[in-house]
Design a protein that fits this description.
By secondary structure, the protein is an all-alpha fold. The protein has one domain. The chain contains 2 helices and no strands. α1 runs antiparallel to α2. The two termini are 28 Å apart.
């Protein structure tokens, strides 16, 4: 999960660059389809990030709980 969350920063940079390139394009006919595609890619990235960070936090809590229970006799 760390690789997913870490790789998202480079994906965000690429999406930002593609978005700026699309917005600054002089061709107005490709503006609508280009911005729709970039928006959908941002949405997919947001869902992947939500899933990755949720799983990352759950795994951290689970491993911390197991570590604490191994130190305490009464768990």
């Amino acid at each position: 999960m760390t690789m997913l969350t870490g790789a998202s920063y480079s994906a965000m940079a690429l999406l930002f660059a593609y978005g700026l390139n699309t917005l600054l394009s002089p061709n107005l006919s490709s503006l609508g389809s280009g911005t729709n595609l970039i928006a959908e890619m941002w949405l997919v990235l947001a869902f992947v990030e939500l899933f990755a960070y949720a799983l990352y936090a759950w795994n951290f809590g689970f491993s911390l709980e197991r570590m604490v229970c191994s130190l305490v006799i009464f768990c």
